[in-house]
Every structure is written in structure tokens, then in C-alpha cells.
Amino acid sequence: MHILLVEDDQQVANAIRRGLELHDFAVDQVTGLAQARAALQHFSSDLVVLDLGLRDGNGMTLLAQWRAEQQQIPVIILTARDALADRVAGLQAGADDYVTKPFELDELIARIHALLRRSSGRASPMIRHGALEFEPGLRELRYHGEVVCLPRRELLLMEKFLYAGRRVLSADQLNDSLYGYGEEPDSNALNVHIYHLRKKLGKNVIETIRGLGFRLGKAE
Amino acid sequence: MMKRRPLSIQGRLLISLLGSFVLVWSVVSVWLLLDLQTQMRHTLDQRLAATARVVAGVLDQLPEGALNDSQLTTNYLTSPLDGVACQVRWQSGELVLRTADDMASLLDTPQSGFSQRNFEGTQWRLFTLEHRGMVITTADRMSERDALYQGVLIVVAGPVLIALIGMLLATWWGIKRGLKPLLSMGQALKQRRPEALEPIQLALPQEIEPVLSSLNQLLERVATLVRREQRFTADAAHELRTPLTAIKTNLQLATRLPQAERNEVLLEANAAVERMQQVIDQLLVLARLDADEMAFNQTSSSAGEVIELAIADIDDLSRLEIAGDLSLRFPLDSATAAMALRNLIDNALSYAVNEQVSSPVEVRAIECGDCHCLVVRDYGPGMKARDMAQATERFWRANHTQQGSGLGLAIVEQICAGSNGQLVIEAANPGLQVRLCWPVA
Predict the structure, then answer these.
(1) Class of domain A2-119
(2) Identity of the residue in A8, A15, A53 whose CB atom sits nearest the CB atom of B246
(3) What is the separation, in whole angstroms, between the first and last Cα of chain B?
(4) A GO molecular-function term, please (chain A) (predicted)?
(5) What's the distance, CA A70 to chain centroid?
(6) What is the ipTM metric for this complex?
(7) CB within 8 Å: A105 and B252
């Protein structure tokens, strides 16, 4: 899953990016409001981690703008402002969660998983599709009850497919969920990953929709 | 010991005004009564004397020898008058007339003029006139006089008492009404939340209007201070939490990353620790400068010492150009002056890198007008006029991607303020020039 990190302090941003990547998220980091606005149009992010005191303004204004434009993406505010008034204002401006710095990495990851779960409309942390079972927090994929060991990128790809259900995903969307900042995808890499997944989980696990992209198959 | 609460203004006014009214009115009344008594006594005495003279006049009108009529000596006035009496005798002692038979003991053998006698248990006033061989004595009973006096008193005292009571009531009402604005101001103050700092809106008479307006000014100043303090606290929290977040997150990463990658995040954590230390150090410097503002104003130092100290810890001196009169003296100790100068040099070195790789930074000690100045000039991108005005605010940073706490110029300004100096930031085109000026003593 792809996370857009809006954070202007490079030391903090580096640490958060590393932490998120360690937990199998693809991360892109931007430092200002304008960049964040542009990034959300460019990438198909699944979640935004938003700092408030940015050098070109307050993250809250950006959030309010997004919500006014019916932008549904889940947003976690991650800020040093811990006053009650700030937390209330943040949530009222449309944030889905509010985490204060310094934070526990595990808690942030858990909150991100919870938000992704809620935004995909599920109640349980376990994603089930046909014979596939996946728990994002545990990073464990089961096929017919058997744990399947997949390389990181292939697992990321399956995660993206499983979150999307049977929606069609474009190659760009899939690439964004695989590659964050500084990772240039090979033009053919996506097809290679899908080829490997089909080999391990059966031919029908991923369907190719010509001209549009891919979607999850029946996986029986 | 609890201090006794002073009496309320209303109480004070009531007690002092009503007290003095009662006192003045009592003195006046006593004076009036005494005067009235004297006057009445005088008037009644005059009447007593006039009666005696009237009797004398009437006797004069009688034909010669009429009074020698022996028949008359037994003739008393038929209906004795109550409270008054009269007697006429020849000087030889023979009685001519008496109002009542049984009053001989009262009216006999008086001394001439006014006198007083006790008769049958009551006091009488007598007047005796000697006229053509006759002794005429008139008398009236003192209790009649007293009754009259009391009657007059009652007639006079009623209106006076009513006036006094009326006046007391009017005073009480007037005081209450007069103090109403004060009371309403007190009420307004009492009803405020203690933390409320907005001005009090009340229509008040001109006497206490200044009190309210200076109170409102004070409130406004306090509100500004509180806002500044809150912003400072929020900024300080932010500046401390940010590196703390980097430290904490990197340390958490270190426990999860493989051995090979661990070193890198520990170095990151270390960098964040250093940054945090810098913020804390600078906050402490500021706190110290706040606490003993003038303490460093008692010594002086030379430009040479100050510059030497300021550049002592700078690793790369190749971009620095030092010039000017190094013997100029500044009215503060060299360590503090060097701290200010060092902050300016650090700013110049870090902000003026974009233009040219090796753009120089000039440090000069010069005399301008009646000031001794330390000047730091760079050839970097300079500063916008709006930024120059804000630059000395605590935690203000020109560029958030730059390292630094945003306290450097605040410290420099604090040093200048404490040592009677001046911090001048001006565009140098190209670049920026910052001057630290102290007036020559």
C-alpha cells in the first residue's frame, strides 16, 4: 500500500519513511502543501500521514481543502501539537486519526492498518477472498489454509489486489503501491511479479483486463 | 496575621456623614435650647416687671387718699389667679392689695428687683418695685414657665427632628446612588472568569473612568504577554518534540533492523540528539539572558578578543574575511559578545551557500558615527523585508529545511537589549549585512 508522507523536517521524515518501509509500505515524502497537493494527483496513494506546521502553511488548510473537494483518502495527522483544541480541530477538519509526536512506531503502523481496513469497508483485520486469507498487520498470506511465502514486492502486490477486491487496478496504481521514493520500477517488473504470482497461486488468481489493467481473479 | 478588612466606602461615608450630621445638629440644638431658655426667662421677667409697673401706673391713677380707705385693706381680689400673684404695701408695712389672702409668706418682705422663692413646695419668681412709698410685688410660678418652655420645645423640636431624619435618609440614599457605578464595576469584576483577559465594557462616570481604562490597558498588555508566552511554549514544545521524535523513531528502528543497517539509524538518532541539545542549550542561554539582563554589562572587551572567541570553534575558516580596527572596545564581556557574533557568522555561513560555492563572509569591526560596531556581511540570497522584521522572533526560521532552532537571532537581540546595543539587519545587495552596534561610552 502507498503512503504519502507530508513532513518538512528531514530527520523526522527519514525516520518515519524507514519505519513505514520496514513494515512493507511504499512511501513518498513531500515537504510542503503545494507538493502534497501535486503528489496526491500524481500518485495513487492509499493513505496520507500529514504534519501540521509546514513551511508553506498549515496542513489543516490542505486537509480542509481535500475534504471540500470530496477527496476520500484516509488522513492521519502526525504532529507535535498535542493540545486538546488542536486535536479536536484536526479531527473536525476531516482527519481520520490524530497521533502526536513523539509516537510509538507500532502504534502508528497499527493505526494505519486500522484506517486502511475501515476505508476498504471491512470490519475484521483478516481479508478473505476465495481461498486466499491475508492479515496485513501480520504480513501472512494463506492459500487454502497454507502459509504462502512470497517475496516482499509480490506480497505488496497481493495486498493491493486484496484491498481492492475485484476492482480493476491500473499498472500505475499497482506500481505506486510497490515503489516509493527513490525506487525506479523496471518497465517490465510488474508483469514479472504477476507472472510469479500466477505460478504460485494459480493462473486465475489475477485477471488481465485488456486496456485497463488487472484485477483479482476468483482464486479458488 | 490576617489584615483587618477596611470598612467599605459606603460604610465610611455613612458613618462619617451621619455622625457629623447628628453631632452638628445636637450642638446646634443644645445651643438653641439654651438660648431659648435664656430668652424666655428674660422675656417673662420683663413681663413680670411690666405687670408691676402697670399696677403702679393704675395705683397712680386713683384719687389721692383712696388707698387710705380702711375698707380697702380687707379687700382682696375676689378670684385668685392661678400661677400669678400681686401685692401692694405701703412702705410702712401696711397692706394695700393682695391677690390672695394666703400668700403673705410668698409676697412679704421681698428685696427689690428680681428674686426667687419657695412657696408651698414650688418655685416662684418675684419682682418688687418701690414706687411713691408703695412696695409693689408681682410673682409667677416657675412651673408655669417650665410648661411654656416645654410647649415651645415640642413645637420647635418636631420639625427639627423630622428634618434631621429626612436629611439622614437623603444622605443614605445619595451615598448609595453615588457609589452605584463603583459597585457595578466591582460586580462586573467579580463576575469575570479569573482567566478572562478581554476588556471590561461598562459606562462609567468620568471620575472612575480612568481606573477602568487603565485596568483595560493592563488587561490588554497581559493578554499580549500571555499570547506571546503561549506561542513561545508551543514553539518550544514543537522544537523539542521534533528531534525527540527523530531520536525515538530511529531507536525503535534500530531494534528492528538487521545489524548491517542499524548503524545508519543510530547515526541519525545521534544527529537528532545533537540538534536537540542545541535547542536546549539555546533555550537555556535565552533563559539566562532573560534572568540577568544587565549582569554582563559591567565589563568591556575588545573587537580582537570577541572575534577570536567567536571563530574559535569554526572548523572551516576559509570563507571568513576579518578586517577593521580590532582594538575597538564594546561594553560587554567578550564571551557574551562572541556568542552574539558567532550566531551571526553561523547564519551567514549556512544561509549564503546557494549563490556561489565559496561566497565569502566578511567580519569587520568598525566605528560608525558614535557607535562601535561588529559587522557580518555575506554575499548570499539576502532576506525579504518582511522576513527581516520577523527574524528576531523566537523560533522564527527563514527556511525550515535548514538546521537550526530559530533562536540564534533572538539570542543576539536579547544580548543587544541587555547591553544597550542595537541589532541592525539590512540588505547589502548582493547579500545581507548584520550590524551589532554599541554606543561609545
Answers:
(1) alpha beta
(2) A15
(3) 51
(4) DNA binding
(5) 19
(6) 0.85
(7) yes
Give the pLDDT confidence score for residue A97 in this predicted structure: 96
Q: Do A15 and B241 touch (CB under 8 A)?
A: no
pLDDT at A107 over 90: yes
Supply φ then ψ for residue A134, to 5 degrees.
Answer: -140, 135
Give the chain A residue nearest B276 (alpha carbons): A11
Nearest to B344 by CA among B389, B314, B384: B314
Lowest mean pLDDT among A166-175, A209-218, B58-67, B398-407: B398-407
Closest alpha carbon within chain B to A101 = B245
Short-list B85, B405, B87, B437, CA closest to B275? B405
pLDDT at residue B74 tops 70: no
Contacts of B387 in chain A (CB under 8 A): none
Residues of A in contact with B241 (CB under 8 A): 80, 100-102
Domain boundaries, chain A: 2-119, 127-216
Residue B390 CA from chain centroid, whole number: 39
Half-sphere exposure (CA, 13 Å, Cβ side) for B107? 26
* B287: CB partners within 8 A, 6+ apart: none
DSSP letter (8 states) at residue A80: S
Q: Is any Cβ of chain A less than 8 angstroms from the Cβ of B394? A: no
Distance, CA of B110 to CA of B98 (rounded, Å): 14
**Which domains, and CATH codes, for chain B?**
10-167 (3.30.450), 209-289 (1.10.287.130), 294-439 (3.30.565.10)
CATH architecture designation of domain A127-216: Orthogonal Bundle (1.10)
Q: In chain A, which residues touch B (CB < 8 A)?
A: 8-12, 14-16, 18-19, 22, 31, 53-55, 80-83, 100-106
pLDDT band at residue B78 under the 50/70/90 scheme? low
Q: Among the listed ranges A89-93, B199-203, B368-372, B402-406, which one has the minimum average pLDDT value?
A: B402-406
Q: Where are the beta strands (DSSP E) in A80-152?
A: 97-100, 127-129, 132-135, 140-143, 146-148
Q: Where are the alpha helices (DSSP H) in B352-407?
A: 385-390
B254-313 confidence digits (pLDDT tens): 999 998 889 999 999 999 999 899 889 888 888 888 766 555 556 888 999 999 999 888
Q: How far is A104 from chain B (nearest CA, A)?
A: 7
Q: CB-side exposure of A13: number of CA atoms within 13 Å?
A: 20
Q: Which of B238, B246, B247 sits opposite A53 (nearest CB)?
A: B238
d(CA A137, CA A109): 8
Q: Which three three-digit cell numbers place residue B118? A: 419657695
Give the number of other CB atoms < 10 A from CB of residue A105: 23
Q: Quickly state the pLDDT bin for B436 (edges 50, 70, 90).
A: very high
Q: What is the pLDDT of residue B297?
A: 57
Residue with more model confidence, A17 or B122:
A17
Query: Each residue of B258-267: pLDDT tens digit?
Result: 988 899 999 9
